[in-house]
Amino acid sequence: IWNDTTPDPLNPPKELGPKNDPFVGGGCRKNHIILLSDGEPNMDLRPWCEGGGTCPYPKAEDTALTLSTDVTNPVPVFVIGFAVANLTISSGPDSGTAVDCKTMTAFNLSNGNGWCAKNPGDSKLQACCALNRIAYNGGTTRAYFANDKDELRAALSSILSGIAASASSRTL
Question: What is the pLDDT of residue 171?
Answer without folding.
Answer: 47
